[in-house]
Specification:
The chain is of the alpha/beta class. The chain has an eight-stranded mixed beta sheet. Strands 2-1-5 form a three-stranded antiparallel beta sheet. The chain has nine helices and eleven strands. α2 crosses α3. The chain has a single domain, classed as Aldolase class I (TIM Barrel). The radius of gyration is 17 Å and the shape is globular. β6, α3 and β7 form a beta-alpha-beta unit. Keywords: 4Fe-4S, Iron, Iron-sulfur, Lyase, Magnesium, Metal-binding, Queuosine biosynthesis, S-adenosyl-L-methionine. This is 7-carboxy-7-deazaguanine synthase. Catalyzes the complex heterocyclic radical-mediated conversion of 6-carboxy-5,6,7,8-tetrahydropterin (CPH4) to 7-carboxy-7-deazaguanine (CDG), a step common to the biosynthetic pathways of all 7-deazapurine-containing compounds. Belongs to the radical SAM superfamily. 7-carboxy-7-deazaguanine synthase family.
Protein backbone atom coordinates (compact mmCIF):
# COMPACT_ATOMS: atom_id res chain seq x y z
CA UNK A 1 0.00 0.00 0.00
CA UNK A 2 1.14 3.55 -0.70
CA UNK A 3 2.53 5.60 2.18
CA UNK A 4 3.30 9.23 3.05
CA UNK A 5 6.27 10.69 4.86
CA UNK A 6 4.80 12.85 7.62
CA UNK A 7 6.15 15.27 10.18
CA UNK A 8 5.55 14.43 13.85
CA UNK A 9 4.06 16.29 16.79
CA UNK A 10 6.40 14.23 18.96
CA UNK A 11 8.31 11.03 18.15
CA UNK A 12 5.99 8.39 16.74
CA UNK A 13 2.90 10.64 16.46
CA UNK A 14 2.11 12.06 12.98
CA UNK A 15 1.19 15.73 12.73
CA UNK A 16 -2.42 15.33 11.64
CA UNK A 17 -4.65 17.73 13.57
CA UNK A 18 -7.89 19.72 13.59
CA UNK A 19 -7.59 23.48 13.94
CA UNK A 20 -8.53 26.84 12.45
CA UNK A 21 -6.65 27.79 9.30
CA UNK A 22 -4.23 30.44 10.51
CA UNK A 23 -3.16 32.06 7.26
CA UNK A 24 -4.26 33.07 3.80
CA UNK A 25 -7.60 33.35 2.08
CA UNK A 26 -9.18 30.60 4.25
CA UNK A 27 -8.08 32.19 7.54
CA UNK A 28 -10.32 31.08 10.40
CA UNK A 29 -11.80 28.08 8.59
CA UNK A 30 -11.96 24.80 10.57
CA UNK A 31 -9.64 22.36 8.80
CA UNK A 32 -7.80 19.09 9.18
CA UNK A 33 -4.09 19.64 8.65
CA UNK A 34 -1.76 16.94 7.36
CA UNK A 35 1.86 18.07 7.63
CA UNK A 36 4.28 16.26 5.32
CA UNK A 37 8.00 15.91 5.91
CA UNK A 38 10.66 17.09 3.46
CA UNK A 39 11.27 20.29 1.50
CA UNK A 40 13.22 21.32 -1.59
CA UNK A 41 14.03 24.77 -0.15
CA UNK A 42 15.80 25.94 3.00
CA UNK A 43 14.34 29.21 4.30
CA UNK A 44 16.36 30.96 6.96
CA UNK A 45 13.23 31.88 8.94
CA UNK A 46 11.19 28.69 8.32
CA UNK A 47 8.83 28.06 11.24
CA UNK A 48 8.73 24.30 10.64
CA UNK A 49 12.42 23.43 10.35
CA UNK A 50 11.74 20.06 11.96
CA UNK A 51 10.21 19.00 8.61
CA UNK A 52 13.51 19.32 6.71
CA UNK A 53 16.44 20.66 8.75
CA UNK A 54 17.75 17.27 9.73
CA UNK A 55 21.15 16.44 11.17
CA UNK A 56 23.74 16.72 8.41
CA UNK A 57 21.83 19.30 6.33
CA UNK A 58 24.29 21.83 4.94
CA UNK A 59 21.92 24.82 4.76
CA UNK A 60 21.58 27.58 7.35
CA UNK A 61 18.60 28.26 9.60
CA UNK A 62 18.35 31.06 12.12
CA UNK A 63 17.46 28.60 14.87
CA UNK A 64 20.76 26.75 14.29
CA UNK A 65 19.35 23.57 15.86
CA UNK A 66 19.10 20.59 13.51
CA UNK A 67 16.61 17.77 14.08
CA UNK A 68 16.96 14.00 14.19
CA UNK A 69 15.07 12.65 11.18
CA UNK A 70 13.73 9.49 12.83
CA UNK A 71 12.29 11.49 15.75
CA UNK A 72 10.68 14.17 13.60
CA UNK A 73 9.26 12.20 10.67
CA UNK A 74 7.61 8.86 10.05
CA UNK A 75 6.08 6.87 7.21
CA UNK A 76 2.38 6.09 7.42
CA UNK A 77 0.16 4.03 5.16
CA UNK A 78 -2.42 6.20 3.35
CA UNK A 79 -5.26 4.03 4.70
CA UNK A 80 -4.19 4.99 8.23
CA UNK A 81 -3.88 8.65 7.22
CA UNK A 82 -7.40 8.53 5.76
CA UNK A 83 -8.71 6.93 8.96
CA UNK A 84 -7.20 9.63 11.13
CA UNK A 85 -8.57 12.38 8.88
CA UNK A 86 -12.07 10.90 8.95
CA UNK A 87 -12.09 10.78 12.76
CA UNK A 88 -12.30 14.58 12.93
CA UNK A 89 -15.51 14.77 10.90
CA UNK A 90 -14.25 17.84 9.02
CA UNK A 91 -14.40 17.93 5.22
CA UNK A 92 -11.81 20.68 4.68
CA UNK A 93 -8.28 19.27 4.36
CA UNK A 94 -5.02 21.22 4.22
CA UNK A 95 -1.89 19.45 3.03
CA UNK A 96 1.11 21.40 4.23
CA UNK A 97 4.78 20.87 5.03
CA UNK A 98 7.58 21.10 4.31
CA UNK A 99 6.69 20.93 0.65
CA UNK A 100 3.73 18.57 0.15
CA UNK A 101 3.93 18.54 -3.64
CA UNK A 102 7.08 16.43 -3.43
CA UNK A 103 4.78 13.50 -2.56
CA UNK A 104 2.03 13.90 -5.15
CA UNK A 105 1.59 10.22 -6.16
CA UNK A 106 0.78 9.27 -2.57
CA UNK A 107 -1.41 12.35 -2.10
CA UNK A 108 -3.39 11.50 -5.23
CA UNK A 109 -3.91 7.95 -3.93
CA UNK A 110 -4.97 9.29 -0.52
CA UNK A 111 -7.51 11.69 -2.06
CA UNK A 112 -8.93 8.88 -4.19
CA UNK A 113 -9.32 6.85 -1.00
CA UNK A 114 -11.03 9.71 0.83
CA UNK A 115 -13.52 10.28 -1.98
CA UNK A 116 -15.01 13.41 -3.57
CA UNK A 117 -16.65 14.94 -0.48
CA UNK A 118 -13.49 16.63 0.80
CA UNK A 119 -12.27 20.11 -0.06
CA UNK A 120 -8.52 19.82 -0.70
CA UNK A 121 -6.32 22.82 0.02
CA UNK A 122 -2.56 22.81 -0.67
CA UNK A 123 0.15 24.97 0.92
CA UNK A 124 3.19 25.04 -1.35
CA UNK A 125 6.21 27.18 -2.17
CA UNK A 126 5.20 27.16 -5.84
CA UNK A 127 8.34 25.57 -7.25
CA UNK A 128 6.76 22.18 -8.01
CA UNK A 129 4.09 21.85 -10.71
CA UNK A 130 0.98 19.76 -10.12
CA UNK A 131 0.90 16.32 -11.68
CA UNK A 132 -2.16 15.43 -13.72
CA UNK A 133 -3.18 12.70 -11.25
CA UNK A 134 -3.14 14.98 -8.22
CA UNK A 135 -4.40 18.09 -10.01
CA UNK A 136 -7.83 16.49 -10.37
CA UNK A 137 -8.24 16.39 -6.57
CA UNK A 138 -7.09 19.93 -5.72
CA UNK A 139 -9.66 22.63 -4.93
CA UNK A 140 -7.41 25.43 -3.68
CA UNK A 141 -3.74 26.36 -3.97
CA UNK A 142 -2.09 28.55 -1.33
CA UNK A 143 1.24 29.36 -2.92
CA UNK A 144 4.01 31.12 -1.06
CA UNK A 145 6.81 32.03 -3.49
CA UNK A 146 9.92 32.86 -1.52
CA UNK A 147 11.69 36.21 -1.67
CA UNK A 148 15.39 36.98 -1.45
CA UNK A 149 15.30 37.32 2.35
CA UNK A 150 14.46 33.59 2.59
CA UNK A 151 18.12 32.85 1.86
CA UNK A 152 17.38 30.59 -1.11
CA UNK A 153 19.13 31.20 -4.43
CA UNK A 154 16.88 32.79 -7.05
CA UNK A 155 17.09 29.80 -9.40
CA UNK A 156 15.87 27.52 -6.59
CA UNK A 157 13.06 29.63 -5.13
CA UNK A 158 11.51 30.67 -8.45
CA UNK A 159 10.61 27.99 -10.99
CA UNK A 160 9.46 30.08 -13.93
CA UNK A 161 7.51 27.28 -15.62
CA UNK A 162 5.52 26.22 -12.56
CA UNK A 163 4.94 29.79 -11.36
CA UNK A 164 3.67 30.85 -14.77
CA UNK A 165 1.29 27.89 -14.76
CA UNK A 166 -0.02 28.72 -11.31
CA UNK A 167 -0.51 32.36 -12.29
CA UNK A 168 -3.02 31.15 -14.90
CA UNK A 169 -4.80 28.84 -12.45
CA UNK A 170 -7.97 30.34 -10.91
CA UNK A 171 -7.55 28.10 -7.83
CA UNK A 172 -4.28 29.79 -6.88
CA UNK A 173 -3.67 32.49 -4.28
CA UNK A 174 -0.22 33.97 -3.74
CA UNK A 175 0.87 34.60 -0.15
CA UNK A 176 4.19 36.38 0.32
CA UNK A 177 6.03 36.34 3.63
CA UNK A 178 7.24 39.89 4.26
CA UNK A 179 10.02 40.93 6.61
CA UNK A 180 10.55 44.57 5.61
CA UNK A 181 8.77 47.25 3.52
CA UNK A 182 11.44 46.88 0.84
CA UNK A 183 10.10 43.40 0.02
CA UNK A 184 7.17 45.08 -1.76
CA UNK A 185 9.33 45.95 -4.77
CA UNK A 186 10.30 42.30 -5.25
CA UNK A 187 6.66 41.26 -5.04
CA UNK A 188 5.71 43.95 -7.55
CA UNK A 189 8.30 42.60 -9.98
CA UNK A 190 7.02 39.02 -9.68
CA UNK A 191 3.40 40.13 -10.04
CA UNK A 192 4.27 42.07 -13.18
CA UNK A 193 6.38 39.30 -14.71
CA UNK A 194 3.75 36.60 -14.18
CA UNK A 195 0.61 38.77 -14.55
CA UNK A 196 -0.68 38.02 -11.04
CA UNK A 197 -3.69 40.21 -10.27
CA UNK A 198 -3.44 42.33 -7.11
CA UNK A 199 -6.58 40.76 -5.61
CA UNK A 200 -4.89 37.34 -5.68
CA UNK A 201 -1.88 38.54 -3.68
CA UNK A 202 -1.74 38.34 0.11
CA UNK A 203 1.03 39.71 2.30
CA UNK A 204 1.80 38.14 5.65
CA UNK A 205 4.26 39.44 8.25
CA UNK A 206 7.14 37.11 9.01
CA UNK A 207 7.29 36.27 12.69
CA UNK A 208 6.62 33.58 15.28
CA UNK A 209 5.41 35.74 18.17
CA UNK A 210 2.35 38.00 18.51
CA UNK A 211 4.57 40.95 19.38
CA UNK A 212 6.62 40.72 16.17
CA UNK A 213 3.52 40.15 14.05
CA UNK A 214 1.80 43.17 15.56
CA UNK A 215 4.86 45.39 15.10
CA UNK A 216 5.18 44.46 11.43
CA UNK A 217 1.43 44.77 10.84
CA UNK A 218 1.71 48.50 11.63
CA UNK A 219 3.59 49.16 8.38
CA UNK A 220 2.37 46.18 6.38
CA UNK A 221 -1.37 46.99 6.58
CA UNK A 222 -1.04 50.47 5.02
CA UNK A 223 1.36 49.03 2.42
CA UNK A 224 -1.35 46.55 1.37
CA UNK A 225 -3.90 49.35 1.21
CA UNK A 226 -1.60 51.37 -1.01
CA UNK A 227 -0.82 48.51 -3.44
CA UNK A 228 -4.27 46.92 -3.52
CA UNK A 229 -3.03 43.67 -1.96
CA UNK A 230 -4.70 41.64 0.78
CA UNK A 231 -3.31 41.38 4.30
CA UNK A 232 -3.23 38.09 6.20
CA UNK A 233 -2.26 37.62 9.80
CA UNK A 234 -1.04 34.41 11.47
CA UNK A 235 -4.05 33.53 13.60
CA UNK A 236 -2.59 30.33 15.03
CA UNK A 237 0.38 32.22 16.50
CA UNK A 238 -1.98 34.56 18.38
CA UNK A 239 -4.15 31.66 19.56
CA UNK A 240 -1.61 28.94 20.35
CA UNK A 241 1.90 30.33 20.01
CA UNK A 242 4.63 28.80 17.87
CA UNK A 243 3.80 25.16 18.58
CA UNK A 244 3.38 21.97 16.57
CA UNK A 245 -0.04 20.53 15.87
CA UNK A 246 -1.87 23.87 15.93
Amino acid sequence: MTSLRLATVHPGEPEIFHSLQGEGISLGRPSVFVRLSGCNLACLWCDTPYTWYFTGHNARHRGCETFVRRENSLTLDIAEVARRIAEFGCRHIVFTGGEPLLQQPALAALCALLGPDYHIEIESNGTVALTAAFDAHVDQLNLSPKLAHSGNAADLRVNETSLAGYARDPRAWFKFVVASPEDADEIDALASQYAIAAERILLMPEGTSPAVLQQRAHWLAPLCLDRGWRFTDRLHIHLYGDTRGT
